[in-house]
Design goal:
CATH class: Alpha Beta
Number of domains: 1
Structural class: alpha/beta
Helix content: 25-40%
Strand order of the largest sheet: 1-3-4-2-5-6-7
CATH topology: Rossmann fold
Order of helices and strands: EEHEEHEHEHEH
Number of strands: 7
Radius of gyration: 16 Å
Distance between the termini: 28 Å
Strand content: 15-25%
Length: 202
C-alpha cells in the first residue's frame, strides 16, 4: 500500500468519550521503547509524525493517525515500564481494556516485539487479550539489525512459538536502521484493508 497522506488526529485518554469518525483501525501494541512510533514514522515517510523518545514509557495516551483518509493507525501506550507506579499501571490497564472493548472498527493489531528477547509476561498477557477479543494479528519483530542475519528468522520463529497464538499469526522481521521489512508491512496493510467486508465486531 502507498501511503500518500498521514496526519496526527488526536490523543485519547478515555475511549468511552472519544469522538472520532468511524473508520477501520490498525493498532500497534508492544512494550515501552519497542519502536511503535519509529515504525509509524518510517511507514508514513515522516520523521516527526509520531513523537519518538529515548525514554521508555513516554506514550501514555492512545494516539490516532489518519492514513489516506481511509483508516487510522492507532499507537497504543507501551507496557512493561518498571518505573511506572501502580496507579499508572491500573490506569493503563483500564485504558487498554476500554479500547479493546469499545473500538468496534478495530480491524487488525500489529504486536511489536524486540526480536532479541523472549516474550515477557506482559507480552503473553497482551496476546491473551488479542485472542480473547478475536482480533487478527501480525507480529512485527523489531530491532532486527541487532542480530546477525543468520539468526533473525530463527529468533522471529521463536517469538511466534512462545506466544502460542490460537490462530494464524504472520511474523514480519523489521529494522528501522536498515529499513528492512517496510515493504512487507505496507503490503500487509494493503492486504488487511482489501479484506471486504470491513472486519467489525458485534
Amino acid at each position: 500500500m502507498k501511503i500518500s497522506k498521514a496526519e496526527f488526529v488526536k490523543s485519547i485518554a478515555d475511549y468511552k468519550t472519544a469522538k472520532i469518525l468511524p473508520k477501520p483501525q490498525i493498532a500497534l501494541v508492544g512494550r515501552s521503547n519497542v519502536g511503535k512510533s519509529t515504525l509509524i514514522n518510517i511507514l508514513c515517510s515522516q520523521n516527526k509524525l509520531a513523537k519518538v523518545s529515548s525514554s521508555p514509557g513516554k506514550t501514555r495516551l492512545i494516539n490516532l493517525f489518519n492514513i489516506n483518509d481511509d483508516f487510522y493507525l492507532v499507537d497504543l501506550p507501551g507496557y512493561g515500564y518498571a518505573k511506572v507506579n501502580p496507579q499508572e499501571k491500573d490506569r493503563w490497564s483500564e485504558m487498554m481494556e476500554n479500547y479493546f472493548a469499545l473500538a468496534k472498527d478495530l480491524k487488525h493489531i500489529f504486536l511489536l516485539m524486540d526480536i532479541r528477547r523472549e516474550p515477557s509476561q506482559d507480552d503473553l498477557q497482551m496476546s491473551l487479550w488479542i485472542q480473547h477479543s478475536a482480533i487478527p494479528c501480525t507480529i512485527i519483530a523489531t530491532k532486527a539489525d541487532k542480530l546477525p542475519k543468520s539468526r533473525r528468522k530463527p529468533a522471529a520463529s521463536l517469538l511466534s512459538d512462545k506466544l502460542a497464538m490460537t490462530f494464524a499469526t504472520p511474523t514480519i522481521i523489521f529494522s528501522s536502521l536498515e529499513k528492512s521489512g517496510i515493504s512487507e508491512i505496507r503490503q500487509r496493510i494493503g492486504d488487511i484493508m482489501d479484506d471486504k467486508p470491513l472486519y467489525k465486531r458485534d
